Automatic annotation (TrEMBL):
<dbReference type="InterPro" id="IPR044837">
    <property type="entry name" value="REM16-like"/>
</dbReference>
<dbReference type="GO" id="GO:0003677">
    <property type="term" value="F:DNA binding"/>
</dbReference>
<dbReference type="GO" id="GO:0005634">
    <property type="term" value="C:nucleus"/>
</dbReference>
<feature type="domain" description="TF-B3">
    <location>
        <begin position="1"/>
        <end position="93"/>
    </location>
</feature>
<dbReference type="InterPro" id="IPR015300">
    <property type="entry name" value="DNA-bd_pseudobarrel_sf"/>
</dbReference>
<protein>
    <recommendedName>
        <fullName>TF-B3 domain-containing protein</fullName>
    </recommendedName>
</protein>
<keyword id="KW-0804">Transcription</keyword>
<dbReference type="InterPro" id="IPR003340">
    <property type="entry name" value="B3_DNA-bd"/>
</dbReference>
<keyword id="KW-0805">Transcription regulation</keyword>
<keyword id="KW-0539">Nucleus</keyword>
<keyword id="KW-0238">DNA-binding</keyword>
<dbReference type="Pfam" id="PF02362">
    <property type="entry name" value="B3"/>
</dbReference>
Length: 124
C-alpha cells in the first residue's frame, strides 16, 4: 500500500500526478490502461501516463467526479494485482456535495421546475 499525498485541485483536464516512488515500483513502465476500484467496488478504467512525472489521465476525471473528490481529499492507492489499484478515500469534509460542471449547472437550473430532486441543490 502506498500513500499519495493528496488529490490535486481538479483542473479542467483532470490529470492526477502520482508523486514519489509508487508508480516506478508498482506500475508499468509504459503508457496504458490501469484500473481503479473505488470504495463501492466499482471499477474505473483510467489512462496511465508513464514519464518522469507519472500521472493518471483519461478516465481520472470521471473517477474524481463519480467519487465526489475535492481538493485535499487523501487517496491511498493499494495495488491489488497488476494494473489494478484499490483507492481508499479519506475526505477533508464529511458532508460532500456532487461536483457539477458549469454547463450542467445551467441545465439543472433550466430544468429545476421539471426536476424537484435538484431544487434543493440549486437553492443551496
Amino acid at each position: 500500500m502506498e500513500y499519495i499525498p493528496h488529490v490535486n485541485f481538479l483542473p479542467p483536464n483532470f490529470n492526477q500526478a502520482l508523486p514519489g516512488p509508487f508508480p516506478f515500483k508498482h506500475l508499468p513502465d509504459y503508457n496504458g490502461e490501469v484500473f481503479l476500484h473505488d470504495p463501492n467496488k466499482k471499477q474505473w478504467a483510467v489512462r496511465y501516463i508513464f514519464s518522469k512525472r507519472p500521472a493518471l489521465s483519461g478516465g481520472w476525471g470521471k473517477f474524481a467526479v463519480g467519487n465526489n473528490l475535492e481538493s485535499d481529499d487523501v487517496c491511498i492507492f493499494e495495488l491489488i494485482k497488476k494494473k489494478h489499484m484499490k483507492v481508499h478515500i479519506f475526505r477533508v469534509l464529511e458532508d460532500i456535495k456532487p461536483l457539477l460542471r458549469p454547463g450542467r449547472v445551467k441545465d439543472l437550473v433550466a430544468n429545476a421546475e421539471a426536476n424537484e430532486n435538484f431544487k434543493a441543490l440549486i437553492d443551496y
